[in-house]
């Protein structure tokens, strides 16, 4: 142990870091941590208002890995600067990817390729990402699981326990989803496997929260770069007891950090309250997907009007639900395809990086305008658009693991919801972020 301590101290000395700063003791003061405001109407950081000017950047952990593990740190560093230039202050990222790595339509390489077995190269990618975010003044929402198959998620835990299931169901583009969702929900609905599944997952949660960053020496639970630990991406209709017990478990491990549910809040207010009422769920979330929910047709030019009307009602209704719980709300996912209505007979047109984004730009602005209006009243706390592809392109050649790091998960067609560094959408995002920043400074 003494040799390990000496080695860490030497490493930090060589990189110009003070180990007394890099690894603070658990339970130190709250400087730098994002907190819920005392009146429940928003967030603060260092005693000042903190509005979420965010993006989804789920691929950040994998980009932060070394080249042998499929990463690209040079690109990640460039994208950090681009994000800061856009006014971004928060990234929602994955802190969990389950293997095995021979399964299709999922992130490869995985973080945990077998129960309790980790790819250290990928884990160091998460270390590198958090360190880079700290250097650039960003905070992180750390997603600890996934209802969907593209990162392994709930279904992979079920598959590990169900010895007769060699691979969980993979829904095709338009069929098989009912079968898959029932299978995935066994993670917290099947009494026969519940204890084993939760125990296995809690070991992962504890491993991540207690990890010491190999880049800067900070223990994750003590790192103010982490704003929130999120139970899962879009846990569909999970039991109240699961939200209560898991959020309490996380809060006990990381009392300086916030905890969020990751709910899309698509259903009714009862579903919203079930996920967000527990005392250790610090704030509420919602996601908005007008094409996936068959409200918007990208090949129909007039369909944008339906999308705008729906989004307006959605933002206001979810804000009201959050107000009734006296908790902040963040719109942490929303997106729109490129302008397929220009060539309605060409299905691939909406995925082409060169296709314009007139509808997307108008849609983003409409959502942003609603959020700014509500934020002025203390009724909304920001957003994370889906998602930032940065320097990547749907047309890029896959790496050695078959991955193309854009903003669309590997089960979706590349380019569907990606925001590239050269898109006109970037200016819409910049203007919105400037408005939120101005509100913080009032």
UniProtKB/TrEMBL annotation:
Domain (Glycoside hydrolase family) ranges: 35-440
One Pfam family, short name: GH5_mannosidase
A molecular-function term among this protein's GO annotations: mannan endo-1,4-beta-mannosidase activity
UniProt keyword terms in alphabetical order: Glycosidase, Hydrolase, Signal
Record field: catalytic activity: Random hydrolysis of (1->4)-beta-D-mannosidic linkages in mannans, galactomannans and glucomannans
EC number(s) stated in the UniProt entry for this protein: 3.2.1.78
Signal peptide boundaries: 1-22
SUPFAM superfamilies cross-referenced by the UniProt entry: (Trans)glycosidases (SSF51445)
Family from the record: Belongs to the glycosyl hydrolase 5 (cellulase A) family.
Name the UniProt record assigns to this protein: mannan endo-1,4-beta-mannosidase
Record lineage: Eukaryota, Fungi, Fungi incertae sedis, Mucoromycota, Mucoromycotina
């Amino acid at each position: 142990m003494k040799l390990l301590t000496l080695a860490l101290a030497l490493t930090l000395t060589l990189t110009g870091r003070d180990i007394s700063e890099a690894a603070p003791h658990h339970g130190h003061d709250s400087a730098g941590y994002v907190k819920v405001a005392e009146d429940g109407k928003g967030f603060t950081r260092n005693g000042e208002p903190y509005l979420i000017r965010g993006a989804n950047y789920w691929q950040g952990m994998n980009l932060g890995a070394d080249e042998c593990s499929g990463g690209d740190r040079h690109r990640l560093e460039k994208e950090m600067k681009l994000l800061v230039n856009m006014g971004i202050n928060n990234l929602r990222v994955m802190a969990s990817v389950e293997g095995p790595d021979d399964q299709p339509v999922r992130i490869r390489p995985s973080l945990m390729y077998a129960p309790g077995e980790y790819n250290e190269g990928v884990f160091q990618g998460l270390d590198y990402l958090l360190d880079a975010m700290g250097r650039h003044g960003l905070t992180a929402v750390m997603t600890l699981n996934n209802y969907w198959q593209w990162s392994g998620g709930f279904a992979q835990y079920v598959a590990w326990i169900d010895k007769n299931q060699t691979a969980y169901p993979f829904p095709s583009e338009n069929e098989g989803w009912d079968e898959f969702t029932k299978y995935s929900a066994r993670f917290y609905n099947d009494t026969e496997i519940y204890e084993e599944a939760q125990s296995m997952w809690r070991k992962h949660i504890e491993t991540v929260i207690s990890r010491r960053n190999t880049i800067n020496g900070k223990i994750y639970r003590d790192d103010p770069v982490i704003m929130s630990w999120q139970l899962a991406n879009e846990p569909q209709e999970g039991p109240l007891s699961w939200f209560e017990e898991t959020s309490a478990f996380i809060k006990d491990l990381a009392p300086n950090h916030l905890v969020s549910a990751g709910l899309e809040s698509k259903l009714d207010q009862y579903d919203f309250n079930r996920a967000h009422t527990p005392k250790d769920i610090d704030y509420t979330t919602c996601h908005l997907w007008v094409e996936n929910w068959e409200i918007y047709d990208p090949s129909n030019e007039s369909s944008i009007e339906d999308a705008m009307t729906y989004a307006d009602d959605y933002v206001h209704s979810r804000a009201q639900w959050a107000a009734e719980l006296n908790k902040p709300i963040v719109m942490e996912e929303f997106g729109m395809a490129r302008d397929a209505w220009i060539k309605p007979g060409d299905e691939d047109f909406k995925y082409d990086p060169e296709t314009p984004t007139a509808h997307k730009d108008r849609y983003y602005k409409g959502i942003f305008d609603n959020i700014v209006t509500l934020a002025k009243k203390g009724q909304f706390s920001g957003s994370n658009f889906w998602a930032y592809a940065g320097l990547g392109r749907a047309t890029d050649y896959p790496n050695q693991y078959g991955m193309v790091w854009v903003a669309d998960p590997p089960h979706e067609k590349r380019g569907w919801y990606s925001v590239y560094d050269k898109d006109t959408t970037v200016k819409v995002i910049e203007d919105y972020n400037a408005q939120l920043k101005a509100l913080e400074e009032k």
